[in-house]
Structure formats: structure tokens, C-alpha cells
Specification:
Layout (H helix, E strand, L loop, with lengths): L3 E4 L9 H16 L3 E4 L11 H14 L22 H13 L3 E4 L3 H13 L15 H10 L4 E4 L6 E6 L3 E6 L7 E3 L7 H11 L4 E5 L6 H11 L5 E5 L19 H6 L4 H9 L14 H7 L14 H14 L2 H13 L3 H10 L7 H10 L17 H16 L6 H14 L4 H13 L7 H23 L5 H16 L1
Parallel strand pairs: 1-2, 8-9
Antiparallel strand pairs: 3-4, 4-7, 5-6
Helix pairs in contact: 6-7, 9-11, 13-14, 15-16, 15-17, 15-18, 16-18, 17-18
The structure holds glutamic acid.
């Protein structure tokens, strides 16, 4: 059998550590068996997908050395590898699936769906579609389609019985069909949902094995049904355990740095990051912690995958990274540090900023300390200001963080106008509004121009600094978060 694996990221937001983690195992397994590792971009959610995010994912995978045998840019025999370019394929397949009675048209309105949902919740049931449109006759469906009544296409799910499957990591799993919703496969805009597009593509791209996060286990029954209705052979799935924080909580964007770019900007080496990720949920036979990618490819055995949530500990990662740094030859170290600190025009940008503010060459390092390295630790008194209270500082930092989340193009003018608009919406003088941001980013209220600094630091480091400053100010309680959520909704509406 030819082994073909894939990574299928959705291009929404920053390149996620979880994508690197899944890519590593998929690529290792394919290459170990002389097969191919495919990259497929799952961009059928038009509102959330962006080109900027796709480029950032490709760039991050390249930086890690996780290049793909087939996919965007490199092409391949099963393309296109971007789902938005495969819409006609899904159209053909959904028609077939309807004929096979594996899917049906649903004309229920949002109001009706909301109402049954509310009712089911009141009755303590798991909310799901009640199957009303299953009873429509063929001619009724035809008539409504001709009238152009808005509709979706849903998956037909058995009423009784259990979905059974063998997960490569967890073994036998059973999920009763009564817990599985009649999933929307085609949305009212004619675009497929992830569940349909991904299943059809895994089949057409001849994927034989899938390593993906455990959050997809509950989707497995839906995917299995699509395979069954079409009478296709399903790939073997391995659901990798979710990465956890040191306190065992789930690693989430809100609390931690989950972007690959963050680790890159902090000065981790790609080989150290990959080595560390390879120890998450997997271990070398002799439990050795430091090993190269080649050794991993030689030794990787999916039978040694564990379902226990692995802890992603940045201190441990730093220790490992240190081992790699010490092994670099002098010339290699020189090259890598130069690229990291000054590559991609960073030196030009920094010199332009510093030159007009310098009297001596050593001013470069004094002024750019927080850009070249981490900023100093903060204490809450640094947020004392004559006209901005600490509460306001907290609101400003939290709202700026929320605003930054939706900015895909990290560009000086875009950042400037986003923050200017936000300060106006909050009825704050721009100068006052910028004060806590300077402290959070630079560790002091007077520093190099803020927007240039943000561009040089990048979105991920910027946001981590904002969140750490929020912690310095005492953090945000659940109650406070609710108040801020409400205020944010009000501001965003204006
Ligand atoms: N597009 C899904 C994601 O963003 C892929 C999940 C899968 O691997 O099946 O993670």
C-alpha cells in the first residue's frame, strides 16, 4: 500500500503549534514508508479564511523544514490542493450522496432551528436537528428547489445503534448514533462544510492515514457515514492528544502563545521545536529526549503514541533549545543569530528608527533592547498615570488585544488606524490611550515609536506582552470579563 498522509489546516489566524505537531507525525509516517505527505488548505469558511493566514502557514511550515510533497505551490497529481478551487467536485459528490440517500435537503428556517434547540435544552437533551425535512417527498423537495427556497444539505444519520471504530491511539471507540447530529454538509451559500469537503478530499487524494488532534474524534462518526454511503475505504485515523499547559489545562490561544511565529520570534531553533513536539504523546524507545528529525523518522512508531495529554512546558523547550544552540558551530551560530535579529530588513528598519535618536553607537542597544530581546519584567506601579486609571489601562490592553486578533495584515498604517479608531470609541485621548501600550510593549513609557515597534515584534509577541501586562495589573476575573465582553460588543457595533 502506498502511504499518503496529509495536513489540512484552515487558513484562519496565525499558524498554530497544533498544525506543526500534526504535520510532524503525518510527514514522518509517510516518509518512513516511502510515501507522500500532502498539504491541503481547507478554506471553505469564506468569512474566516484569508490569504495572509495561508501564506503565514506555508512560511511557518517551511521554516520548520516540514515541506510537503504535494500541495499549494509545489502542485501534484491530485490537485488543486485548495478547497475553494474544488467546489465543483463537492457539487458533483453531494448530488451523488443525495441519490444514495446519504444526504437530504433541509429547508428549515433559522427561527425554527433556534426554537427546537431551545426546547431540547430545556428538556436537558443534547441539541440537534430533529429530522423534520427527512419526511419531505421527492416532489416536495423539487418544488421548493424550483421556487428557490433557501436550504442546506444534511447528512442522514441512523436513529439507532452505535458507531464503532478503532482509533490508532485509543483503540476501540463506540459512539451511539443518537449523539450524532445530522450535520450540515452543504451550507446555504452552496459551499461545503469541513466535514464534507475533508472527507471527499481524503478519498480523492488517496489519503491512507490521518494523524490529527483529538478534538476531531467526535466528528469521526459523521465522516465514517460519508465513507459508508459512498462505499469508500476509510483511512486509518490516529487522534493525537491535545497539548496541555504545565497546570494540565488545555493550551488555548486566549491564555498562551500557540502560534509557531511566537516561538520563532523568541529565538527558538526549528530543530529544537520539532524535537520537543516529537516528544509530545510519543517517546523514543529508550526515552531519550534529544534526537534529530532523521532519527525520529527512523524510529517513529505509531504504536508508541499515547493518549495522555502531553505538557508543553516552555522551560523544558528552552533547556532543549540551549542544547541545540551549544552544538552549533561558531559560523552557523553567527549566521543564525544575524538572520534572527537583523534578517528580513530588520536591521534597516531598526537603524532608521534609532539613527535620529542616537548620540552614541551604544544607543542602538539601549533603545532597541525590547525589540532585540524580551522586555524587562513589569510591576503594576509602572501603570500609574495622572489621567489614566489602572482599570482603564486594563481595558485598553484587553481591547487592543481583541482588536489585534482580527488584524491579518500586520502593517503600520493598519495598526495605527485600528488603534486610533478604538481610542475614539473609548473616548480617550490618543496619547493617554497609548500610555499602557508603551509600558506593556517596551517596559517603559518612553521608547521608540510604538507602531514601528509593533511591526518589528510581530503580532504574536505583541499580544503575549499585552496579556502578560494584564496579569501584572492583577488579571481579569470572570465577572470582569463579562463586563468587558459587553462593553467590547458595544464598541464594535459603533
Ligand atoms: N481543517 C481542519 C483543521 O483546521 C482539519 C482537521 C482534520 O485534520 O481533519 O484542523
Amino acid at each position: 500500500m502506498v502511504v499518503r498522509t496529509r495536513l489540512a489546516p484552515s487558513p484562519t489566524g496565525a499558524p498554530h503549534l497544533g498544525s506543526a505537531y500534526a504535520a510532524l507525525f503525518n510527514r514522518a509516517f509517510a516518509h518512513q514508508h516511502g510515501g507522500q505527505f500532502i498539504l491541503r488548505i481547507e478554506d471553505t469558511d469564506k468569512a474566516r479564511s484569508s490569504d495572509a493566514s495561508e501564506s503565514a502557514i506555508l512560511e511557518a511550515l517551511r521554516w520548520l523544514g516540514l515541506d510537503w510533497d504535494e500541495g499549494p505551490i509545489v502542485g501534484g497529481p491530485k490537485g488543486p490542493y485548495r478547497q475553494s478551487e474544488r467546489i465543483s467536485t463537492y457539487e458533483q459528490h453531494i448530488q451523488k450522496l443525495c441519490k444514495l440517500e446519504g444526504a437530504f435537503h433541509c429547508f428549515c428556517t433559522k427561527e425554527r432551528l433556534d426554537q427546537i434547540r431551545r426546547q431540547q435544552m430545556l428538556e436537558g437533551k443534547v441539541p440537534k436537528y430533529d429530522g423534520l425535512c427527512l419526511s419531505l417527498s421527492e416532489s416536495e423537495v423539487e418544488a421548493r428547489l424550483e421556487q428557490g427556497v433557501p436550504h442546506v444539505i444534511r447528512l442522514r444519520v441512523p436513529d439507532e445503534g452505535t458507531c464503532q471504530f478503532t482509533d490508532g491511539v485509543r483503540g476501540e471507540i463506540e459512539i451511539p448514533w443518537s449523539q450524532v447530529d445530522m450535520q450540515v454538509l452543504i451550507k446555504s451559500d452552496g459551499f461545503p462544510t469541513y466535514h464534507f469537503a475533508s472527507t471527499v478530499d481524503d478519498h480523492l487524494m488517496e489519503i491512507s492515514h490521518v494523524f490529527r488532534g483529538e478534538e476531531w474524534i467526535s466528528s469521526y462518526p459523521k465522516h465514517q457515514l460519508v465513507y459508508k454511503y459512498f462505499d469508500w475505504k476509510m483511512p486509518q485515523h490516529y487522534h493525537l492528544p491535545l497539548l496541555r499547559n504545565v497546570d494540565q489545562s488545555k493550551m488555548s490561544k486566549r491564555r498562551n502563545a500557540t502560534s509557531i511565529n511566537y516561538y520563532r520570534r523568541c529565538g527558538y531553533l526549528p530543530e529544537a521545536l520539532l524535537n520537543y513536539l516529537a516528544t509530545m504523546g510519543w517517546s523514543m524507545p529508550e526515552e531519550r529526549e534529544k534526537f534529530s528529525l532523521e532519527e525520529f523518522y527512523a524510529k517513529f512508531d505509531p504504536n508508541r503514541l499515547s493518549s495522555r495529554g502531553p505538557v508543553f512546558d516552555t522551560e523544558k523547550l528552552s533547556w532543549l533549545n540551549g542544547l541545540y544552540i551549544r552544538e552549533l558551530s561558531h559560523d552557523e551560530l553567527k549566521r543564525r543569530i544575524y538572520d534572527w535579529a537583523f534578517g528580513e530588513n530588520r536591521l534597516d528598519a531598526l537603524l532608521t528608527l534609532v539613527q535620529e535618536r542616537s548620540e552614541r553607537f551604544d544607543d542602538l542597544f539601549r533603545q532597541a533592547d525590547y525589540i532585540l530581546g524580551d522586555r524587562s519584567a513589569l510591576d503594576s506601579q509602572q501603570f500609574d498615570h495622572k489621567s489614566v486609571s489602572q482599570q482603564d489601562c486594563l481595558r485598553i490592553l484587553d481591547f487592543a488585544d481583541r482588536r489585534f486578533e482580527s488584524i491579518e495584515e500586520w502593517d503600520r498604517e493598519i495598526l495605527y488606524s485600528a488603534l486610533k479608531t478604538l481610542s475614539e470609541a473609548m473616548s480617550l485621548k490618543f496619547r493617554d490611550f497609548l500610555f499602557p501600550l508603551f509600558v506593556a510593549i517596551a517596559g517603559r513609557s518612553v521608547a521608540l515609536p510604538l507602531f514601528d515597534s509593533l511591526v518589528l515584534l510581530g503580532s504574536d509577541v505583541t499580544r503575549v506582552r499585552l496579556r502578560s501586562a494584564i496579569q501584572t495589573l492583577g488579571g481579569i476575573s470572570k465577572k470582569q470579563r463579562k463586563i468587558l465582553d459587553r462593553e467590547w460588543q458595544g464598541l464594535s457595533r459603533e
